[in-house]
Amino acid sequence: MSQSSPTPPVRPGAALVTGASTGIGAEYARRLAQRGYSLVLVARRAELLEALAEDLRERCGVDVEVLPADLGSAEDTERVAERLRAGPDGALEPVDLLVNNAGRGDGGPFAEQDPDDVDAMLDINVRSVLRLTRAVLPVQIARRAAGAVTGLGVITVSSLAGEPVVNPGGSVYGAGKKFLTLWSESVAAEVRSAGVSVTVVLPGFVRTDMTRGVQERGLPDVAFVPKEHIVRDSLLAWMARRPRVVPGAQYKTGDALLKLLPRWLVRTVARRMA
After folding, report:
1. Which of 9, 45, 249, 252 is positioned for an S-S bond with 151, CB 3.0–4.6 A?
2. How would you class 39 by CB atoms within 10 Å of its CB: exposed for 0-12, middle for 13-18, buried for 19 or more?
């Protein structure tokens, strides 16, 4: 096990990870299983979830529940929300950590985007995140009030794509991620006194299926942060009860510069690049 692997605050519990079949979500599942968490894995592709679950059971000796679901569907989202409402007195283990990782990254000029694709992206990237977090937080708050150990909360994967003042070609995606960031930081402030930790992680480019297009266009290696670093840094931030984390030195610097640049300058550069 890597020495950089974060250690849970008191004891491993149960974690539910969305978008767990590949990429960052699968890395969350591996890292949490290594630390002894039992898992609930959520994604559309059941066969990939089953393969990952079997591997983690064999390698880490943890319980893994597979819950295939399309979070673009209200019915499937409600099934996952119902799992998150499980309390300590029920038949199912309550969820200590929810990782909101599922997402889709459609782009292009807004006037040319298919309205159904826009709705589907908002369903997965925004609405499902709110529904799932709203399902689990009351249970976690009640458990803390009843004397449960620390280590309860939520990690939400947002994106630095929401931080520029304009994002031509990514207006809906960027706006959705900006919403998630503001919402998550606000919720973190609301539940902090209850002993529940809520953290938003803002990655830059990561080598996943979602970024295959920019990878094929030859974006330089320095632009990418390994998914292992995304997961490591976000878990460390969550355990330290930090509301926000930007993994990668290059993106920490970029995020700081964006806050310093005049809005008119960012708009001008974005118009010329669009």
Report:
1. 9
2. buried
Sequence ranges of the domains in the chain: 14-273
The DSSP 8-state label assigned to residue 18 in this structure reads E
Sequence-separated (6 or more) residues with CB below 8 Å from residue 53: 39, 41, 64, 65, 66
Contacts of 85 (CB under 8 A, 6+ apart): 135, 136, 139
The Cα 30–Cα 171 span in angstroms is 33
Of 155, 123, 122, 160, the C-alpha closest to 137 is 155
Residue 152 · residue 97 · CB < 8 Å: yes
Q: What is the DSSP letter of 192?
A: G
Distance separating alpha carbons of residues 81 and 92, to the nearest angstrom: 13
pLDDT tens-digit profile of 23-61?
999 999 999 999 999 999 999 999 999 999 999 999 999
Q: How does DSSP classify residue 125?
A: I
Best CA proximity match to 126, nearest among 95, 171, 172:
172
Residue 233: C-alpha distances to residues 86, 123, 198, 199, 242 (Å): 28, 27, 14, 11, 11
pLDDT (tens digit per residue) in 221-259: 555 678 898 999 999 999 999 999 998 767 666 665 666
Which listed residue (28, 37, 173, 251) is catalytic?
173
Q: Which CATH number fits domain 14-273: 3.40.1080.10, 3.30.530.20, 3.40.50.720, 3.40.710.10?
A: 3.40.50.720
* Rounded Cα gap, residues 196 and 182, in angstroms: 18
Q: Which residues pair with 97 in a beta bridge?
A: 15, 153
Nearest-angstrom CA–CA distance, 22 and 199: 21
- Catalytic residue list contains 251: no
- Please report the sign of the dihedral spanned by the C-alpha atoms of residue 158, residue 223, residue 5, residue 189: negative
